[in-house]
Amino acid sequence: MGIKSNTMYMAGIVSIGLSVAAWLCSESLEKAGRDRADRWGIFIGEWAPTFFAMGVALRIEETHTDTRAMGGEMMEETYRESRMPSRAGV
User: Fold this and answer.
1) Is residue 34 part of a domain?
2) What range does the domain containing 39 cover?
3) Where is the segment annotated Disordered (predicted)?
4) What's the domain count of the chain?
5) Within a domain: residue 25?
6) pLDDT value for 78
7) Average predicted confidence (pLDDT) for the chain
8) pTM of this prediction?
9) Does 85 fall in a domain?
């Protein structure tokens, strides 16, 4: 889809900041009490692990694609040298 892992990491960091901001704003602007402010902060703060997990998954996919491309070149070079290919790098 064109989304990079760094974008997801930044979304996680922004989510943490928004969690703190929502907690502070809810506590000071709404007169519903600290319990409601805590719920807002926790609700938005729960997004951060999801964004970080998506960033990790995208990072694995990005590096896996690069490794697969490099592995194909290494296999061709090994066969040209008439050696048995090693699976250690794959």
Assistant:
1) yes
2) 5-80
3) 67-90
4) 1
5) yes
6) 53
7) 78
8) 0.62
9) no
